[in-house]
Design a protein that fits this description.
The protein is mostly helical. The chain contains eight helices and no strands.
Length: 248
């Protein structure tokens, strides 16, 4: 991801311009902010899978279905809250961003990607719970490369933020579908569907996974949100590039 980001950043900055690149940075800050509101099932399902007898396939299927149900609820609520904040309070929260219609579009795009990403994270964690670490890593690297290529191609062709956001949404959805098919192969044809029998030990584990992840993630994106609110898209673009270079 850092390598692909280093390649993509100058391309987007050149094709979209400084202002739109600022909105692009805000998009991914908002996606990360939405992930803070999830129920932390990623780490929990890895541990619960490890505790379950490898020969008890039905128990592992129930765990996955329970994790999908918990995540669907959390992802839906957090995504709706995120989109609503941008839609109804975007001009108050980010008064210096300037273009309200684009701000609302970025907010709802982030909400949709946030929902998809949280489900995707559960599927990746389920593979890790089966100790299929190489498979999970290869799927992630391949799908991210395809996504970055789609974003770069769309930016070069359209030179506008809206089509680039749509490319992110489309490739995120395709990644989810592909990962669902792979997980279904290891768990069973209907394993990726939510099951409403909630695993209580998973909920207990999830809250600590959420607390650990949310704290670090929030402090990693809070600066971008503050810059966007106080200084606007052009300053956010400059700040994001500088931070990205030092993070490598």
């Amino acid at each position: 991801n850092p390598l692909l980001g280093i390649i993509l950043t100058p391309l987007l900055l050149r094709t979209l311009g400084e202002e739109l690149f600022g909105y692009w940075t805000l998009l991914f800050a908002a996606i990360s902010l939405g992930a803070i509101l999830n129920f932390g099932t990623g780490i929990a399902i890895v541990k619960r899978m490890a505790e379950t007898d490898a020969a008890d396939q039905s128990a592992r299927v129930r765990l996955l279905r329970s994790a999908m149900a918990i995540t669907c609820i959390g992802a839906a609520l957090s995504s709706l809250a995120l989109g609503a904040c941008f839609h109804f309070g975007g001009d108050s929260i980010f008064p210096r961003m300037g273009r309200l219609n684009l701000l609302i579009f970025v907010g709802w795009s982030a909400a949709l990607v946030c929902f998809i990403e949280q489900l995707d994270n559960v599927l990746a964690s389920a593979l890790k719970g089966l100790e299929r670490f190489s498979l999970a890593a290869n799927l992630e690297m391949a799908s991210r490369t395809v996504q970055f290529a789609a974003v770069a191609t769309t930016a070069l062709y359209f030179k506008a933020l809206e089509p680039v956001c749509m490319a992110v949404i489309a490739t995120s959805f395709l990644r989810l579908v592909a990962k669902s098919a792979v997980v279904a192969r290891w768990f069973g044809a209907s394993a990726v569907l939510p099951g409403w029998h909630i695993d209580r030990p998973m909920l207990k584990l999830a809250k600590w996974g959420w607390a650990q992840g949310a704290g670090g993630l929030f402090f990693g994106i809070a600066d971008r949100l503050i810059v966007a609110a106080m200084l606007g898209p052009n300053s956010l673009a400059q700040y994001a590039v500088a931070i990205q270079l030092t993070q490598q």
